[in-house]
Amino acid sequence: MTFNGLIRDLKKTVGSSKIIFSNEELQVYAGDASYDLINHTPDVVVLPETVDDVIKVVRYAKAYKVAITPRGAGSGLAGGCTPLSGGIVLDMKRMNAIIEINRTNLTATCEAGVVLAQLHRAVEKEKLFYPPDPQSKSICTLGGNISTRAGGPRAIKYGTTGHYVLGLEIVLPDGEFIKTGNICLKHSVGYDLTHLFTGAEGTLGVIVKADLRLLPKPESQRTVIITCESVQQAADLIGDIVRAGIIPSTLEYLSRSPIKLFNKNIKPPLKEDGGAYLFVKLDGSKVGINDDLKKLEEICTETNSIDIRIVDNKNAALYWQMRANLYPMMVAQNDKIIPEDVTVPRDKIPAFIEKVKKISEYYKMKIGISGHAGDGNMHPSIIIPDRDKHTESEILMVIHEIIKSGLDLRGNISGEHGVGVLKSEFSYLELGERQIEVMKRIKKAIDPQGIMNPGKIWKN
Amino acid sequence: MTFNGLIRDLKKTVGSSKIIFSNEELQVYAGDASYDLINHTPDVVVLPETVDDVIKVVRYAKAYKVAITPRGAGSGLAGGCTPLSGGIVLDMKRMNAIIEINRTNLTATCEAGVVLAQLHRAVEKEKLFYPPDPQSKSICTLGGNISTRAGGPRAIKYGTTGHYVLGLEIVLPDGEFIKTGNICLKHSVGYDLTHLFTGAEGTLGVIVKADLRLLPKPESQRTVIITCESVQQAADLIGDIVRAGIIPSTLEYLSRSPIKLFNKNIKPPLKEDGGAYLFVKLDGSKVGINDDLKKLEEICTETNSIDIRIVDNKNAALYWQMRANLYPMMVAQNDKIIPEDVTVPRDKIPAFIEKVKKISEYYKMKIGISGHAGDGNMHPSIIIPDRDKHTESEILMVIHEIIKSGLDLRGNISGEHGVGVLKSEFSYLELGERQIEVMKRIKKAIDPQGIMNPGKIWKN
User: Fold this and answer.
1) Which end of chain A, N or C, is surrounded by fewer C-beta atoms within 10 Å?
2) Which strands form A19-20's sheet, in the order they lie side by side?
3) What order of strands is seen across the sheet that includes strand B68-71?
């Protein structure tokens, strides 16, 4: 298939208005938000507007063995939507209808291109709640969230995207269409294909629609900032909070370094001599929150935390906005940032932080540590102020060491970003050859030609 | 392989003390708790005590192409553990160790043969909570729960077994061993094999161990019985409750007929002229429950329910015991009972009940209706007081009509019992040929010889 033939055929298949093929525009589709990874431009981008468009394109790709890479907002951090073999990128952003919000059934049915914040707003208007909240929520799409089992800070209490996907509509690599699951909470009919496709990073088919579970919107919420003496004290506190039966909706760990920056906007400033900081959000009924607040203050007093600040609800958004901006802020200030995404059991957080500090010292590389500590999901970020200072292989070594540290503590190599390209050479470390072999067999059974998002999850 | 050869070989493989092959004992393994279904005795039962035992038996079965049917307590209601092709039943009950309960990480790691009530007791002693609660909880095993994505009344608030399985240890049909997932809440590494095997009804491998997610034990609970004028009023109430942001931990629907029986034990008796009854349990903090109770009373007053009874906590267990005994009680009193398990969206419950009543009238067959109405999971039970009155094909027709009624309302054919044998001829109605084709390809990829629990989920 020549390039001109491909464009000509796709124009006939879905119409010119749904195709992008100018060189400049294709550059945008060469990678995702992960910094400085292998990029690769596709031959063409199709922006389907209907399920039928998707089916036609996939059938065409099948007939001519052209690679297809489904793409949400491109906000991923593992290179999952990088079209390694060129071919067609399916940009799902035009399929962005919220089809139904059912207040009695507590479900929503949405197209894959719906932006997460758009869904949040729509359901919250109905006093409902969709918990998953990756930091990229203002731009990321549901299809991308589902394909990476995306998480976010609220996972500690509410779980991740997989916990809210009830059913999917999928175009398979042979162009056939299936509908898995449905809008019922209970479902015990055959293999759970819904969750097989959730987290498959677009390698098994194109997700076009999803049935999602909703919750009632919590009546109220409250933000608390705890300044701790040390990492160990912060980790102990996390354990104490959980064991006291308090499950915050968010429980973030921050090191000292970003606090100075935050203090430019916060009045009064937070104490800057803390060894670690916990950003806590409680949600639920007002009486329930007051109950939890009391317990939380007692715990902090008992453990001699430096400071506990209960933030006024009208100022809370500022604190969380700063937390969400941490990664883009670091990207802006440095030559290169590699955000890691490792999860460890909650009781292993101090051991993990200790290991990362040692790696940082040994390799003389700056590593910032923040994370959704409540659920053990840590994001050490390798900070390269000047990229001439370290070789690629040194950086790779550090990534490898961080990943191994997590695994040694019974953790996993990716909590919420997926494997994509970035970690495809490390997945065997966690999964082992036998498990990858099973995944490869499933891949082959569903996509025998290997046209769906090739080169991801494992190295061939 | 002759019968004698099989016994001799297995004795050598795992030792005589782990094998059952007398005719009388094999009868026990011919079926499950579903009444009057196709039964089939296995050739031999193996009771493995270690993962190594399981591996050895599966390798042996693979070498000689002998069928293997994994079995928990045999309390299933769809014939899922009936060894249709004879061969080996793997009775997992001896692998019943609770290996770890981690209070800080809120996780438990258990062998597959752990009885659910045993886990409930163990975690509750630590002030923790494992929500899934099928009515057979005093005998059913975790392996069986996982293999059927079992639910129970608490699913309305807490979801089903699948929501609590974080990782699995599995012996594959080729005798190889894999460990999927882990004890972390967040996990985004490759295909979600954990949930592919959860609900696979033992057709893809033998689950030997599971990592489970726990919650803090709710501080308190409260039982409320609401007597409604009509089915419609009960259904409206369910909607009103949910839309008011109250999610009870349990919300059961009962028809009038069992109430008379219950009244033999209840003081004062419940009013017997209700058109429908809701058994509600609220859980959470004491203040939170009081808040919900107030709202609930207001809703009942506004909708003119006949009666609302807030049950003393010390008497509540009696009400729930009677609810749990409903099915065995019906079985004891009638010649034959076929318990159906259909889920519909919550707002479609009255339409479903109406349809079932019409089926009952048309076929002149008694159908009792109860269900976990909070999550739309309805259990119409076909009651045959005298089995000579109806032919098998009439009964099959009624089952078919009930299932179709659920599907027409966007429901599914099995909420929590699985497909097993009982529904294997109906699964295509929900899943469609294309989706079953995908499942068959996965089955073939993982179990090419077809030795794992053959004949289940779909008709070949």
Assistant:
1) C
2) A19-20, A44-46, A88-91, A68-71
3) B19-20, B44-46, B88-91, B68-71
Query: What number of C-beta contacts closer than 8 Å exist between A and B?
Result: 289
Which of B182, B200, B245 is closest, CB to CB, to A216? B245
Q: Which of B191, B199, B246 sits opposite A439 (nearest CB)?
A: B191
Closest to B374 measured CA to CA, from B211, B193, B159, B171: B159
Residues of A in contact with B196 (CB under 8 A): 191-192, 195-196, 442
- Residues on chain A touching B129 (C-beta within 8 angstroms): none
Q: Which of B107, B418, B442 minimises the CB distance to A442?
A: B442
Residue holding tokens 């591996």? Answer: B55
In three-state secondary structure terms, A263 is: coil
Q: Which residue of A has its CA nearest to B104?
A: A239
Strands B19-20 and A342-343, sheet pairing: unpaired
Q: Looking at chain B, how many residues does it have? A: 460
Nearest to A305 by CA among A262, A270, A357, A281: A270
Q: How much of chain A is helix, strand and coil, in % rounded to 5?
A: 40, 20, 40
Cα within 13 Å of Cα(A34), Cβ side: 24
Rounded to the nearest angstrom, the minimum Cα separation between B291 and chain A is 9
pLDDT at B191 (0 to 100): 98
Tell me the pLDDT band of B36, cut-offs 50, 70 and 90. low
Do the Cβ atoms of A181 and B405 come closer than 8 Å? Answer: no
> Which of B155, B216, B287 is facing A291, going by the closest CB pair?
B287
Mean pLDDT across B49-66: 98
Average pLDDT over residues A258-269: 90
Distance CA B70, CA B68 (A): 6
Q: What is the pLDDT of residues A70-114, one digit of tens each?
A: 999 999 999 999 999 999 999 999 999 999 999 999 999 999 999
Instruction: Choose between B339 and A138: higher pLDDT.
Output: A138
Find the residue in A nearest to B292 (Cα).
Answer: A285
- CA–CA dist A143, A322 (Å, integer): 26
Cα angle, residue B63 at apex, residues B61 and B65 outer, rounded to 5°: 60
User: Which residues of B are less than 8 Å from A442 in CB distance?
Assistant: 191, 196, 442, 445-446
Q: What is the pLDDT of residue B391?
A: 87
CA distance B453 to B451: 6
State the distance between the two ends of chain A, measured CA to CA, in whole angstroms: 25
Q: How far is A314 from chain B (nearest CA, A)?
A: 24
Report residue B211's pLDDT band, with 50, 70 and 90 as the boundaries.
very high
Residues of chain B positioned with their CB less than 8 A from the CB of A175 = none
Report whether pLDDT(B273) > 80.
yes
